[in-house]
Every structure is written in C-alpha cells, then in structure tokens.
Task: inverse folding
C-alpha cells in the first residue's frame, strides 16, 4: 500500500484492499510499503498494523539520527523519519482536518510557525524506572529501555544524565520516576519520585556531581503520595514540579502572539485561566491589563505571585471560582490536554466576552471546545506553533470574538 498522510498521533495512513483505513507507525507520506505479516488488527471502521518492508521510500523520508528511535522504538518521538518541512505540513493538515471534522468549522489549514530549534529544545525529561531508567518503546508500553541520550533534550540536561547514570545508587529507593529539569536561570533540578523512604543522601550526590557539572544542581524528593520538596541545594522557590512549556522559546512566541490578538487591553480586566506560573499574565501586565490568573497548582501560583505582584493570582480550579471573579473584557485560556471543563465553557458562552483566545496542546479537544463556544463566538483566526519538533504534538492558538 501507499502511505498518503500522517494522522493525529504520528502514524502513517494507508488503505487496505477493502478500502478500510489502516494506521501504520514509522511510515512517511509517499512510502510504498508492505505490512509485517501477522500484524494487521482489524477494527470496525479502521485497522492497525506494523511496518514490514519499505518497498520504495517517499520523498519525505529521512534517516532518523537517534539510535533509540531506530533500535529501541522509542515512543518519545514519532516523526524523526520525516523531513522537517514535511513534519510542518503534516501538523498543519492535522490541525485543519481536526477543526473541520470534530469542530464542524469552516476553516483552512492554519499557518504553522516553525520551531526555533529542531533538536535539543526540551528543558525537561522524565524517565520511568523498572529494570532500567529510561523511556518506553511505542510498541511495548510496559517495557523501559535504558536511556543513553535523548536528541530532543537540552545538552545541559543530557550532560547531567551522563554523570548521573553512574551514581544511581545515591538516588532514593525504590525509585519510580526520575525527572531532570532546566530552569530559567540555567539551574539543573533532579526530581526523584519514590514510594519508599525519604532521600537522605541527596547532599552526597550533589557534591559528587559538582566536580563535573558546571552550575547549580538542586535535588528534590517527591513521595508518590505527597508534595515534592528540596532536599539538597538552594530552595529558590522555582516550582520544579509545576507545569511549564518544555520548549520555553517557542512557548514565548505562542503566548506573545496570543496576547497580541486581544488588541488594546489597557486598564481592562483580563482573565488568564489555567495560567500556571504566570507567563501569559506577565505579557498582559506589560500591555497594561488588570490580570486575574487562575490555576489549580498552588506552587505554580505562589511562584507567579512572587515574580508578578501586579497581577492577582488565585490557586483554585477555574470552574470553581469563575462566579467570584470580576467581569472580564477578554479571556485567555490555556487548559490541559483534556480541554475546558464544561462549567468554564458554559460560563464563557452564557456571558460572552469581546475576545477569547484559546491556547491548546490538543487539536481534538480544541475542536470540541470551539464547537461548543461557536454558539456565541466567531472564530477569527488560528495559528499553530511547532513547540515539539520530531513529535506529533502541536500547539494551536485560536482567536474568537463575541458574535
């Protein structure tokens, strides 16, 4: 069969002889392929299969540079075998198709802003721990292969990991998850998640790393059923366990464009819902807005409040506090992958604001929510941002105005 396009999630799409759509991982548009014998799984309206042989490669196919992608079937990336221009075209089509198919919106495929860096952009990596510390293969989600290097993660974090790999005995046991994170002052954070005893020898690990790693290292102990806390290094207040875009540079571009679409907000009240550590709020304050930022993560809110006293920060679920907030002139929402809570969508439709900007990390829930909001809003513009090169993920910003 011939692969014609890339689907949500990164699988190539072809058709069986009976016309049924089949999804095949690690294939590229234009590839002429044979399926692996015995891999075909038929469902009611579609099928899934594994690649057996590339009869002739499509024009977009390239050699993936990461050995883990090839030999370990690493599930962290989905598109390394596709040239970057073709990745952008695929993401543009994915967003446009999803908005039309799920959202029932009459829109063209949006512009996609290409990434500042195609590689080494991630400021955070999380690894699971089983028989090894590493990542999951896409085709064996219960298995973990040992990680040597991640080509989309910042060199500084991978340098830390290379040194840390030989010192795993100094981490708390039993270790269940290990996260490395780079903050905005280029400090490196080690977050050890465990179901066992407290991390008592974190200072020893930190001292042993200091001879080979330049810069500050901060160790966090994160009990599975508790809050993370610093156990070695300076407690800077930076919430290493809070959500933050793993591609900071591209995140700034997306948020800045989103805020610009609101126009003049001087002296106007603007809601920043699901506002996290306050990056969008900071841009709104720069433009003279009276900002109310809401997020359920108390640590993120505390950090935002400390760095941006000009905004009002509230630690709560957005759907719980909307009735108590001052009426807004405009609203920015940046919800998690699950999209807007129904009560938030209901409030925004029952009491429309002049402008609503939706920053989304999932085209499907964005399309669903835009269809709900379409009752009292008109979609004015959509732009996608490639925050996650080599993966199938895409960030989308949609701008709506009250109808």
Result:
């Amino acid at each position: 069969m011939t692969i014609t396009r890339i689907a949500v999630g990164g699988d190539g799409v072809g058709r069986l002889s009976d016309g049924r759509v089949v999804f095949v991982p690690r294939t590229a548009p234009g590839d002429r392929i044979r399926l692996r014998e015995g891999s075909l799984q038929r469902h009611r309206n579609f099928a899934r299969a594994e690649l057996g042989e590339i009869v002739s490669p499509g024009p977009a196919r390239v050699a993936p540079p990461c050995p883990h992608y090839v030999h370990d079937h690493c599930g962290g990336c989905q598109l390394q075998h596709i040239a970057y221009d073709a990745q952008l075209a695929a993401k543009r089509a994915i967003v446009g198709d999803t908005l039309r198919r799920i959202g029932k919106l009459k829109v063209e495929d949006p512009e996609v802003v290409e990434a500042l860096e195609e590689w080494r952009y991630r400021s955070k990596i999380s690894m699971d721990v089983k028989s090894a510390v590493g990542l999951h293969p896409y085709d064996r989600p219960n298995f973990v292969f040992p990680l040597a290097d991640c080509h989309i993660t910042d060199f500084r974090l991978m340098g830390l990991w290379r040194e840390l790999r030989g010192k795993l005995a100094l981490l708390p046991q039993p270790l269940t998850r290990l996260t490395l994170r780079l903050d905005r002052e280029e400090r490196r954070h080690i977050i050890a998640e465990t179901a066992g005893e407290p991390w008592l020898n974190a200072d020893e690990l930190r001292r042993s790393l200091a001879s080979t790693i330049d810069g500050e290292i901060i160790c966090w102990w994160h009990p599975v059923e508790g809050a993370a806390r610093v156990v070695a290094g300076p407690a800077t207040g930076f919430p290493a366990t809070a959500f933050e875009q793993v591609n900071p540079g591209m995140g700034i571009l997306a948020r800045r464009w989103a805020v610009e679409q609101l126009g003049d907000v001087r002296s106007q009240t603007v809601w920043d819902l699901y506002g996290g550590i306050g990056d969008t709020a900071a841009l709104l304050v720069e433009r003279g807005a009276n900002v109310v930022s809401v997020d359920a993560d108390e640590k993120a809110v505390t950090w935002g409040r400390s760095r941006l006293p000009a905004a009002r920060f509230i630690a709560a679920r957005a759907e719980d506090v909307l009735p108590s907030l001052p009426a807004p002139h405009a609203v920015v929402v940046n919800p998690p992958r699950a999209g807007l809570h129904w009560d938030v969508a209901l409030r925004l439709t029952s009491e429309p604001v002049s402008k609503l900007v939706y920053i989304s990390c999932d085209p499907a829930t964005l399309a669903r929510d835009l269809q709900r909001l379409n009752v009292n809003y008109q979609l004015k513009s959509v732009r996608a941002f490639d925050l996650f090169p080599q993966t199938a993920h895409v960030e989308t910003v949609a701008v709506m105005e009250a109808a």
Summary: The mean pLDDT is 96.
